[in-house]
Request: fold
Amino acid sequence: MSCIIIYHSECGHTKRYAEYLNMRIAADKLISLDQFKFKDILNYDNIIYAGNIKNNVIVGLNKLLKKYKKIKDKNIFVIGVGLLNITAMNNGNDTFNRDIIIISNSLDDKHVRLYLLPGGFNINKFSKFKGKIIKRMLKFASKDKSSGEKASIDMLLSNGIDLVDINNLDKIVSVYNRVNNK
Reply:
């Protein structure tokens, strides 16, 4: 069965997941949302969309789901990538985050498989203006923190965080293979 992977990536973490997934399932097409045209997906049985999470919304997903009626009979996989999931993953429970994202993206009435993956944060990948705002917010937030928390924020600002791991895709690949009888 044919497959297209569409991705939107602000800092590069989501793009890496899309490329790793493509290596594991050998999709017919891997394309950035910037190059995407809706007619591109009508010929594919499997549609995988990966986007970064911003304010509980998977960026760019609405462009795909706007025409949901035309693709509702296809296998649709959605991957949300962001730091939002770190706390929940450490506790072994992503139910709270998943529910918020399902509601925020209007996925509750659609047949979509949703996966949440940890991404990362790199202040250097943002525009100078946005980077300055984020730095100020984090420095302000660290004012009343312990020395350990301040050190963590300083590390975040200088080194960033990268939690992208090809093994995070295991469940998605397993379900994809099962759905496609592989």
